[in-house]
Amino acid sequence: MSNYPPPPPPPQPQPSSMGHGVKIGVGIVIGIFLITGLMMGACVACGGLMLGIGSRQAARQAKALSTDPASLPKVGQRAESNGVALTAEQVSKSKSLSRFENAAPNNTYLIVDILLETTGRDEAPYNPFYFKVKDSDGIEYAAALTGSKGTLSTGTLYKGDKVRGKIAFEVREKATGFVLSYQPLVIFGGYDPIRIALD
Is the pLDDT of residue 87 over 80? Predict the structure, then answer.
């Protein structure tokens, strides 16, 4: 008979805590993916709404900036670009502007009544010499220097302001297909030309 005590039992494996931690980690990851997915869905929906609004505004601006007379706004239609709106309200022709202002032989005055307004700018300058017309042959005409009654003056429009006036152009008497363009000559002003078909 041995005097040595019996050997101790072998150590039992301890339950691992890793399984519980892994479950928590997986749950957090899934939660993050779900929240991210919901947020992305909301952004897409919001973006779609803004895209629809932006598309309509872009379409109006593209029409005003087009160089194809057939696709341009017409007399009486409002054209808008870069926070400025222009309407050619009436167009007429005359051989003279006043007693001392007569067109040269084979020429006539093309007179455009315009309405100019600011819609998205804090201010915008106006001046008759910011306007030009071009005929179907590509000939461009600058505004005539005239002091006749009702002629558009010069100044600055502040947000929401409007101004009306007449602008005269001495053009060839037989010319047709006129397109009016407006673009302030301001450095870094960010103004694109607004065009309106007058015929």
Answer: yes
Nearest alpha carbon to residue 103 among 113, 111, 95: 95
Q: What is the mean pLDDT of residues 35-54?
A: 50
d(CA 185, CA 199): 26
134, 169 in Cβ contact below 8 A?
no
pTM score, whole prediction: 0.65
Burial class (CB in 10 A: 0-12, 13-18, 19+), 158: exposed
Q: What angle do CA 20, 21, 22 make, to 5 degrees?
A: 90
> What are the domain boundaries of the chain?
66-197
Cα separation, 89 vs 93, whole angstroms? 14
Structure tokens at 60: 């109006």
Give me the count of residues in the chain: 199
Of residues 45 and 150, the one with the higher pLDDT is 150
DSSP string, 137-154: TS-EEEPP----TTB---
Fold designation for 66-197: Immunoglobulin-like (2.60.40)
